[in-house]
Amino acid sequence: MADPMKIRATLVGDSTEVKVLMQHEMETGQRKDAQGKTIPAWFIQTVTATWNGKTVLTAQWGTSVAKNPFLAFKFKGGAKGDRIQITWVDNHGDKRSDEATIA
Amino acid sequence: MGAALTAVAASVAFAQGSTADAIAKYREALQDGNPAELWEARGEELWKTPRGPKKVAFTACDLGLGAGVVKGAYAQMPRYFADADRVMDLESRLVWCMVEQQGYTQEQATKVPFGDGSAKRSDLEALAAYVVGQSRGVPMRVSLDHPKMKTMYALGEKMFFYRGGTHDFACSTCHGEDAKRIRLQDLPNLTTREGAQKAYTTWPAYRVSQGELRTMEWRLNDCFRQQRFPELKYDSDAAVALTTFLAYNANGAPYAGPAIKR
Amino acid sequence: MSARLLAQWCALALMLLGCATAPSDDAVRTEAEAVMKASFKARGQADLTRLDQDETQRLCSIYAGKALPRDVAARIEQANLATIRYPSDGKLAGDWRNGEKIAQEGRGKQYSDDPKGPVGGNCYACHRLTAGELSYGTIGPSLYQFGKTRGYTDETRKYAYGKVYNAEAFAACSNMPRFGHNGILTEQQIKDVVALLTDPQSPVNH
Amino acid sequence: MDESRRQALRTGGGLTLLALLAAAGWLRPGDAAAEGWNTGAFESHSLDDTVKALGGSAPAQSKDIVFVATPDIAENGAVVPIGITSNIPKTESIAILIEKNPNMLSAVFDIPAGTDPALSTRVKMAQTSNVYALVKADGKYYVASKEIKVTLGGCGG
Question: A27 to chain D nearest CA, in Å?
């Protein structure tokens, strides 16, 4: 099971800036191990961000998003204390959701 | 001829300058989100959780400022610990606490000193990330007052200049002069205060090339691998001596890790 | 570690001044070597004999960070000059294309490397060589246009071969590995590197 | 992504191709793509094929797509920061494509109303390559590109 994400949500003027770090291998499926066997692809495929339940960003990712992914975006609105939730699903079907409040 | 040479020299200087600028921009762009935070969070969890056969948390571990005190502790390490009668760097001390307080064997405690960038993760790397993060902004203040610290420093200095192996390399081959680089990587001159400060205060670091949080012991271990030396043992006196040499040379600078590096 | 050393120093120092006296430089060096021997372990192709110094390494360690006395420098250069073996077939330059590959290759002799190879010179780690490769180091001087500026002569090729074979013969305590003397590169590989530096067709000279 | 669009993806090219790939043995069991993941687009090897798989056609060059805090040279290809801002009105999605990667498409972001058409992330690049920022706005596709050099770093071993 992956570690919790690090989510930072900050009010900047009338917008909320969200920065997320996720712990994930993002294995490409192109690499070989020491024995020459291909290491199967293992990567986050979809990411969803919600603000108090409303979707503010969705993403589809391929294998070439960097390991331990970073994502930053901004949306209009938000107030201190509002909930930001991020969810990812990977190609193994593993899923992780974490929350932060807007600071 | 003279004009042509000048033109060549100028274009070379330009090429170097623009490459360096572009690399500086790359490094700047990375600062915004440092995955080292993921290790810090995991390390904090490990620090606070009762572990080992004795079910003791690291809150019993004295890093030099009292049991469980983490804030600012790393900025004064390595240091002499009377309970162990030995000079220890952070990682040696973590191992000591795991063995003496949590009840692990030395072998168990040092089984995974470094992660493999994949499934094999190192608790020691995570713990180190957490502890050093608690010294962010604290000026380095390593003391050589204890005679064993003086000895360690003197030994570390000799090891720094020790040439050996198939390639005649010493630490000083790459880190003994100002403003040099290997490929495109700037090499800090670790014999100067400024160079040691810049380098030492930014380790441990998240290495993007490996997708791993890397500690000071790892840094030394991998430098020696590339020096074509045999393998530096984890928690060894040579590792502690070199760390003492570098940490003391970095005194005065605010600690700034864990950083993010290529 | 140095409980033993400290005890020795103290025993000696107590007789004289108490235990605050600094040990001699030689004593520290001896102890540092002992601590290193205990702190490393053999792995892969790198065994503990890699820590044993030859005379050149020993002298260059002693004088590291200090001015190298002229007589010591001469002694080092003379001893190393005597080690250089030029190719028996008299041909000093090989194929610059292979030379470029050797210059780019950083592997070889590390405990993590396959002992069967490849082994490179990793020249770009320290030198600028061609206009095309931006990722080059500056520990050594730029070798861009090496042949063009020095002339495409046998003399240039002989110097280049000797320098790659054993750099200590020309500059005592140079940072450059002794590629031939220490068996890092083969004779053919050194010839190829010489070609990279001195062939008019090589990108080094464009 | 709203439900109707996800529905469209599921019934559109995505799942059909996924089924085909699975049938052809390209995908191992258990590797079923996450819901809403456009397999076809991520398996494409050209800009045009990717746009087609995403449901569009030939994108127009645009100066209103800007790379922000995106370096010209990456010190390491394993992590290359990419920031993209679209100044095209009604921007609905932003995608990142890397020309010389084995599969071109790296990421697609859907931008609901209220979210800035600006984001940053990090990608892997196998070698020096053009990077495309592909924007869908008001149903049309636009593109901008930038070359990023990937350098060999470190001590080489």
Answer: 11
